[in-house]
Amino acid sequence: MWDLRTVDNMKNLTPISLIILIVACLPMQSALAERSASFGDYQVHYNALPTDIIEPNVARAYSIVRSKNRALVNIAVLRLVMGTPAQPVRAEVKVKAVNLSAQLRTIKTRELNDNGAIYYIGEFPVTHKEQLTFTLEVTPVGTATSHNVTFKQEFYTN
């Protein structure tokens, strides 16, 4: 959901956030659209996308392996304070994914700090038409409460 805090934050887009925003808005790629969940004063934005659609210079800058058989999960955590733009916050982020054969994978994430924006990304292999159910466990720094988000994504590699 868009609000004035989201619009204010768009003024400070960096290369990776611009690429992720563009990818999230592509009509043909609606399955890649950015998703979010709110938990009190926090909002978690997340998406998953194939890495071959990331621009080569952006992938190089952030050490992302581009391949049609690899995907990336991207998570950002924002703190909402009435009357101010949403603020990126650090968090402990754990990601697990399960395929339709019930094979569990733990996806290691790493923090990217980009001009004040904070992202957590994790790369993993995918196969054609593989459907994964992701479970995110997000604990903002300074809090004891974890927030869980679950979403599904199907990947097409051909």
In short:
With 158 residues, the protein is mostly beta strands. The chain has helices at residues 4-9, 15-25, 56-61; strands at residues 35-39, 42-50, 70-79, 87-88, 91-99, 104-107, 110-114, 117-125, 130-140, 147-155.
Provide the CATH superfamily: Domain of unknown function DUF4426
Uncertain regions: pLDDT < 50 for 5+ in a row? 1-13, 21-32
Q: Using the coordinates shown, work out and report the CATH topology.
A: Immunoglobulin-like
Dominant shape: globular
Number of domains: 1
Q: Keywords for this structure?
A:
about 160 residues, mainly beta, Immunoglobulin-like, 6-stranded antiparallel β-sheet, 3 helices, about 15% helix, about 45% strand, globular, disordered N terminus
Blueprint of the fold:
Elements: H1 4-9, H2 15-25, E1 35-39, E2 42-50, H3 56-61, E3 70-79, E4 87-88, E5 91-99, E6 104-107, E7 110-114, E8 117-125, E9 130-140, E10 147-155
Antiparallel strand pairs: 1-2, 2-3, 3-4, 3-8, 5-6, 5-9, 7-8, 9-10
